[in-house]
Design brief:
- By secondary structure, this protein is mostly helical.
- It has three helices and no strands.
- Helix 2 crosses helix 3.
- It is flat and about 70 Å long.
- The N and C termini lie far apart (about 50 Å).
């Protein structure tokens, strides 16, 4: 964590680190339940929530190309395993 912290503060000197002991009481005063999204809201430091939407908008990220250099299992789509006979 120290390496990460140093790099963050070097790039963003105005950054502030917060901990759960700080965000939990703030989240409770806002009347939010414990979720990742609500913790992010509590970290922002807003004082009052005007509207609490019931639904979530989630986006699934996927890659356009496979970028792995090594596969754990062989492909079944006609890929061949090349071997040499060592004599």
């Amino acid at each position: 964590m120290n390496v990460f912290r140093r790099r963050v503060f070097k790039k963003y000197p105005q950054a502030k680190i917060t901990y759960g002991s700080i965000t939990t009481p703030h989240r409770k005063t806002l009347g939010l339940e414990k979720t990742h999204f609500n913790d992010a809201i509590a970290i922002t430091g807003i004082q009052k929530i005007k509207e609490n939407p019931k639904g979530l908008f989630l986006i699934k990220q996927f890659r356009k190309k496979k970028r792995s250099l090594h596969e754990a299992t062989a492909r079944k789509e006609g890929g061949r395993l090349l071997t040499k006979d060592v004599k």
